[in-house]
Amino acid sequence: SIVPSTQVAPDVVTMYSQVLVVDPATRQRSTLTVCYPPDARPEQGVVSALSPVGASLLGRRIGELASWSTPAGEQRSVQIVAIPFQPEAHGDYTT
To answer: Among 83, 36, 45, which Cα is nearest to 61's?
Structure first.
C-alpha cells in the first residue's frame, strides 16, 4: 500500500535504504543500498530498484525473505536482518 513518506515505518525498505541481508544458504552477510538506476553501482552493493534484487527488496520488512531470479535463471534469496539507514526514519521525506 502507498503511504505518505512521513508515515513509513522504519522497518520497511524504501529508496536509498541501506539493508543488511544474510544469504540463508551460505550465511554470508552483505549490505545493499536500493537506488534509482543512474546511481547503481552493483559491485559496491548499490543496486537499482529496477534490478531483480532491488525490486525484491523494496517494501519488505526486517525479518522477511526477498527472492528473485538472476539473469542466468538461478533462484536467489536473502533475509533482511536490519536497516541501518532508511531516509524517512532520518527525516528525509519525498512528499
So the answer is: 83
Provide the whole-model pTM: 0.91
* Neighbour count for residue 79 (Cβ, 10 Å): 16
Determine contact, residues 45/32, Cβ cutoff 8 Å. Answer: yes
Distance CA(36)–CA(61), nearest Å, equals: 20
Residue 94: pLDDT band with limits 50, 70, 90: low
Q: Do residues 49 and 36 make contact, with C-beta atoms less than 8 angstroms apart?
A: yes
Helices (H), the chain: 52-57
Q: Give the single-character DSSP code of 90.
A: G
pLDDT per position as a tens digit, 26-80? 999 999 999 999 999 999 999 999 999 999 999 999 999 999 998 899 999 999 9
| Nearest alpha-carbon partner for 34 in 24, 49, 20, 23 | 49
